Each structure stands twice: as structure tokens, then as C-alpha cells.
Amino acid sequence: MSMTQLDHSKQREFSMTSANFQKIKVLAYRLTGIHLSELKENMIYGRLARRLRALNLDDFNQYCDIIDTDHCAEHAEFINSITTNLTAFFRENHHFDFLRQQLLPQLIEKNKVSKKIRIWSAGCSTGEEPYSIAMVVATFPALKSWDVKILATDLDTNVVAKGSAGVYAHERGEPVPKEYQRFLQIDKSGESLKIKDEVRQLISFKPLNLLHEWPLSGLFDFIFCRNVVIYFDLPTQKKLFDRYANQLTETGHLFIGHSENLHKISDRFNSLGRTIYQRIK
Ligand SMILES: C[S@@+](CC[C@H](N)C(=O)[O-])C[C@H]1O[C@@H](n2cnc3c(N)ncnc32)[C@H](O)[C@@H]1O
Fold it and tell me: What is the Å distance from ligand 1's center to 228 Cα?
């Protein structure tokens, strides 16, 4: 046993061997596509220690025995514990400026016969991303009579439930630009805010693992998949972006996170700059 492991076992409430971490790592990859490097070991220990307490277990050997069974109930809790759900309203605000100033006006012209727009927020976390999209959509009077639908999905069932409720701590609303604040209803106590119905009704929240089959009918005009693939390895990213291209209209747009790019990953998109892409084949 290395010194590092010895040190850990002294400080830690539960012992976690390298074999335990390897098992967790393999399962995380198989269930979610998330690649856990050795650097994440402490973080994963902290997140899963809560599960050991909840289940009244003595150590990670016992926990690994539980998650080793196929289709066990603990897998959902395991997945919910290992995902990183960091998000915010109007995160990477230039994407929402692009929607308002360029993409939505273009779609209003392009889709004027069908009067239909389909949007997907894939890996939506607690909902701030799809609500930000919906607030931008709601500022277009022309779209009031259109059939606009936003699908918001995530594999973490806790965050999907939170997004669906549309209730947040008051301070979460701070990044919402002034012109969109009217879509937030502040609670009488001033502690929480609720997204108003005219915005909520545009979105359907659903649990969905991006590695699995997508039970989707029809193509999307644009897809947001931001700060999700950063946790995936290259082969998983390649497959996913290929599937996104297939799921977009011929000239559909894809928005990815600030530290992500499609260079050498997919040749099916043209970069429009600032992590905005357009399908070309
Ligand atoms: C850091 S959050 C990004 C949230 C939002 N897109 C944003 O940029 O603010 C990443 C989300 O991806 C989700 N995720 C990770 N692996 C996934 C998978 N295989 N299928 C679906 N969602 C996944 C996580 O549960 C998490 O909520």
C-alpha cells in the first residue's frame, strides 16, 4: 500500500482501496460515459461516502458488492452522485445573444410555413439552460402563436426533477439579464423564485442517457450540449456528435461548452466561432 493510501485510510471515515476506485471508474464509464481520472478519486470518495452513510455500510467493499449487480436500484443513486451538475442561467451569455439577434430571426423566416421550432437542451442539469433559451424565445411576439417546443434531458434524475419544478433560490436569478427578469416570479419571502408559466410551458423535462437509444421523433433546429462531453473520452464524443448531426435539420445549429471543440472529432459541422456550429453534412 502506498503512503498516500495509508494517509487516506487514517483521515477517511470509510476505507476505499484502489481496487474499489477501479471498479467505480469502470462502472461510471459503462453507465454514463463519464471518464474518471485518478485525480477525481477524492471528489468521488466525498460524493459516494454519502451513499455509504445512507445505506449504513462499513466500507467501499460493501458498496462495490452492491453496485456490482446488473440493473440494481442503487445504480440511479450512483449515477446521480457522480455527475457534476454545475450550471447557471445565461451561462456563456453570447450563445443567448446569438439566439436573439441571429438564429431565432432566421428560423422565423425559414420555418414560416410550418410555424414550428424544435430545440433540445441535452445534459440540461437543473434547468437553467433550457429556461434561458425559453426566456429568449418568449421575447419574440411572432412566436406566441407558433409551435415551439424545447426538450430538456439529463441522465441524473434528481436534476431533471429540480428543473421540472422550476423553483430556485433567489440569488440564482442574479445572472438573468434585466430584459428577462420579468419571467421570474419572486416568492413573497424573497427567498426563492419561480419561472413563470409562459416560459415553463415551452419545455418538457425528461430523463435520458445520451449513450442509450434516443426515443426522439423528428429533427431539431438547434441543440445545446454544453459542458457535457468534457467528461467523455474521444471515441464517445465522436459517436455523440455524429448522432447530433443526424438529429439536426440539414442546416441545424449546435452549441457546445467554452472548453469544448469539434476539431478532429467531427467533420459534419462548420464552426461559426465562439463554440457555435452549423451542420454541413
Ligand atoms: C456540468 S452540467 C452542464 C449543464 C448545462 N448544459 C450547462 O452548460 O450549464 C453536465 C450535465 O451533463 C449530464 N450528463 C453527464 N453524462 C450524461 C449522459 N451520459 N447522458 C445525459 N446527461 C449526462 C450531467 O448529469 C450534468 O447534469
Answer: 5
3-state secondary structure at position 274:
coil
89, part of any domain: no
Residue 88 within any structural domain of the chain: no
Whether residue 132 is found in the same domain as residue 261: yes
Query: For residue 85, how far is its CA from the centre of ligand 1 (angstroms)?
Result: 6
Q: Which of 77, 228, 241, 254 for a ligand 1 pocket mutation test, highest count of atoms within 8 Å of Cβ?
A: 228
- pLDDT > 80? residue 10: no
- 145 vs 110, 114, 131, CA distance in Å? 16, 12, 19
Number of independent structural domains in the chain: 2
* Cα separation, 34 vs 166, whole angstroms: 27
**Tell me, what's the pLDDT at 7?**
52
Q: Of 82, 102, 137, at which residue does a domain stop? A: 82
47 is catalytic: yes
pLDDT over 80 (residue 92): yes
The pLDDT > 70 percentage for the chain reads 96
pLDDT tier, 3 (very low <50, low <70, confident <90, very high otherwise): very low
* Whether residue 111 sits in one domain with residue 49: no
In tens, the pLDDT along 180-197 reads 999 999 999 989 999 999
Same domain as 174, residue 75: no
Parent domain of 67: 3-82
Which amino acids bring their CB within 6 angstroms of ligand 1?
32-34, 83-87, 91, 123-125, 129, 154-156, 159, 209-211, 226-228, 231, 257
Is 228 in contact with 210 (CB distance < 8 Å)? yes
Indicate the DSSP class of residue 34: B
